[in-house]
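Quick start: read one record
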Amino acid sequence: MTRHSLRVRLWIGAAVSITVALLVAGVGLVTLFERHVERRIGDELRRELNQLAAAITITPAGTVNLIREPLDPRFEQPLSGLYWQIDSDGQPGLLRSRSLWDAMIALPTDLLEPGGVHTHELAGPAGQWLLVRERRIRMQASGHSRVLRLAVGQNRAELTAARNAFAADMRPYLGLIVLLLALATLVQIQTGLAPLESVRRGVGAIRSGQDRRLADDYPDEVMPLVTEVNALLDARAQAVERARAWTADLAHGLKTPLSALVADAQRLRQDGHPTLADDLEQLATTMRRRVDRELIRARVRSGAATHQARVEVVDTIGRLLRTLRRTPDGERLEWQIDAPPAAYAALMPDDLLELLGNLLENAAKWARARVRVWVRAGPHARQAGAWIEIRVTDDGPGVPTALMTRLGERGLRLDQAREGTGLGLAIVRDVVDAYAGTLTFRPASESGLTVSVHLPAAC
């Protein structure tokens, strides 16, 4: 997969989304936990503040005392992280817990309504940062009235430690969520892209000739693409049919003038011009052969051989050889056939007949005494699927190495002295290319030429 892959883009989008979602969820959960713990600490500090207020008394002399100190043992341990303090007007730190040691909590100079509770975050002893709950009360006894500020504070580091512990405990579960989301993303991507893969297989089936159109059972999001592809296939089929009709009309239109040329050649011969008649007749024959070849090439290149093409190769070779053995070139040769009882190729019968006819005619024209035809069915060395391999080997003079790569070019004739148009192997190449096969030429083991053709096998 490359960076242009839709699958890669979906994975990147999913990874970014999962990462952002987990970061937001993680930060949100930790923040909620921290606020929850902070509220719990605040509630505990408020209870301690109420107990402290309930224990305050004023002596007849006007001094402030505690009936009992808060029971939490941390109030007695120096710098324990839990502290209380009572301030009076003009007397900060009038009473305070032993845990403060020789320090005091510097309360802000905010105005408090009696009974109201304020929340602060203030600096504490030994560099600690405290969560503080403060309350203002008015005490009257024995003719004395005192305004007191009560404060209870706890080291915020305990809240931070609890938050960090919660985050550490949450990490494995976040990792499990990442794994589950990745698996869900995989299933989602596979399911979402499955219709596109189905479209790809459908187009491949059309190209290989197994189907004519894409099916109509795709999801709604893919159906516009399927509809356009089917419309394109219909338009192409109509264009091909029109092109074939035009080609056929042109060929039939040329046959009448060519027949007239042959008739003119006969009249010239009767009038005592045999040389001119022979030239004119040969020209007409060559032109007619070219027309026939172009009709074949037009049919092959039009894509007409598509839907469920199937033909038996060995039987076709046998029928062609029965005809070739009655020709001057064919009857002088020894034909050796090495083939299984049957082999089916995914070609239209006329196209295979044209392909094999040109191969065998070419071999018969150049062979000295023997032509060998070899047929096998099996896998291709470089392409997937089942294939039919056909080899035709003659014992003729062969082809120069410099010209080996040019075989199959339209109009190429290796011997101008021999009759021919140079179209035979070009037609073979056209047929092979039309069915996505392969055509190779190589020197025979002793002398001559071996032509190998790989064609797709029929199911």
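DSSP finds nine helices and 14 strands in the chain.
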